[in-house]
């Protein structure tokens, strides 16, 4: 595990820990509106922290009284997410990176008799050549869907910088992503203990998509 490219919010005490705790809490999880809002708030917190690592440039701003210099983002990143669980988390990023273009990917896991596989069936994305790409997904479990998503997105151009953001991650998922996308910077809310036999994160928080939007068939 490359700690130089891994950033874990929960290692520094902050309000982000309160949002993560509520996402995990089975009593609070009964309120899907609050669950979605906590995902969104963590997206906002993470967007702010990530913004500190992006390139900035001096720009002249005209106020009603005079001109002044401000240090502003040199460019806004492309924000990408995996449907459907990623939507509230993505919205938090978009609240702060409000001039960003967005990409959306449909990916789902198929649990076969022998192993877990991931399939992509939808992608809408702007051109990515020489862009900063932030790929967000609440749960980084095996990492297979994120790796598959990113590699398929390369059809639309090679980003100059790739950042992957998750609320909860497993060590297995982090290792897989770092092996397959070594150039990526990883930002996670919390790094949990392990994956269970069904490839769910432990202690985790359950199925983020179901908790945010209701059970699926």
How is the secondary structure organized here?
Blueprint: E1 6-8, H1 16-24, H2 32-51, E2 56-62, E3 67-73, E4 78-83, H3 86-96, E5 102-111, E6 116-124, E7 132-136, E8 139-140, H4 144-153, E9 161-169, H5 171-180, E10 185-191, E11 194-195, E12 201-202, H6 208-213
Parallel strand pairs: 1-10, 4-5, 4-7, 7-9, 8-9, 9-10
Antiparallel strand pairs: 2-3, 5-6, 11-12
Helix pairs in contact: 1-2, 2-3
CATH topology: Rossmann fold
Poorly predicted parts: none
The number of distinct structural domains comes to 1
Cα distance spanning the termini: 36 Å
By oligomeric state, this entry counts as single chain
SSE string, helices as H and strands as E = EHHEEEHEEEEHEHEEEH
- Morphology: globular
| CATH architecture identity | 3-Layer(aba) Sandwich
Backbone CA Rg: 18 Å
Number of E-state strands? 12
Give me the number of helical elements: 6
Beta percentage is: 25-35%
CATH class: Alpha Beta
Q: Structural class, from secondary structure content?
A: alpha/beta
Helix content: 25-40%
Biggest sheet character: 8 strands, mixed
Rounded average pLDDT: 93
Task: Please supply descriptive tags for the structure shown above.
globular, 217 residues, 30% helix, 8-stranded mixed beta sheet, single chain
Task: Give your account of this protein's structure.
The protein has helices at 16-24, 32-51, 86-96, 144-153, 171-180, 208-213; strands spanning 6-8, 56-62, 67-73, 78-83, 102-111, 116-124, 132-136, 139-140, 161-169, 185-191, 194-195, 201-202. It is α/β, with parallel strands linked by helices and 217 residues long. It has a single domain (3-213), classed as Rossmann fold. Helix 1 packs antiparallel against helix 2 (32-51) and helix 2 crosses helix 3 (86-96). The chain is globular. The protein starts with 5 loop residues before the first strand and ends with a helix. The mean pLDDT is 93.
């Amino acid at each position: 595990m490359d700690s130089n490219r891994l950033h874990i919010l929960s290692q520094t005490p902050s309000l982000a820990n309160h949002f993560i705790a509520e996402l995990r809490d089975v009593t609070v999880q009964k309120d899907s509106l609050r669950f979605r809002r906590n995902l969104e708030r963590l997206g906002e917190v993470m967007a702010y922290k990530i913004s500190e690592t992006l390139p900035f440039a001096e720009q002249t701003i005209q106020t009603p009284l005079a001109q002044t210099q401000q240090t502003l983002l040199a460019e806004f990143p492309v924000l990408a997410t995996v449907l459907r669980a990623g939507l509230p988390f993505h919205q938090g990023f978009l609240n702060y990176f409000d001039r960003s273009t967005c990409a959306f990917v449909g990916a789902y896991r198929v649990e076969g008799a022998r192993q877990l596989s991931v399939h992509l069936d939808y992608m809408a994305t702007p051109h990515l050549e020489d862009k900063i790409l932030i790929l967000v997904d609440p749960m980084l479990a095996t990492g297979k869907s994120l790796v598959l998503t990113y590699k398929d997105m390369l059809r639309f151009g090679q980003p100059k910088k790739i950042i992957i953001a998750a609320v909860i991650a497993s060590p297995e998922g982090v290792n897989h992503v770092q092996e397959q996308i070594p150039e990526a910077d990883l930002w996670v809310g919390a790094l949990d203990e392990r994956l269970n036999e069904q490839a769910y994160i432990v202690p985790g928080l359950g199925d983020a998509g179901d908790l945010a939007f209701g059970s699926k068939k």
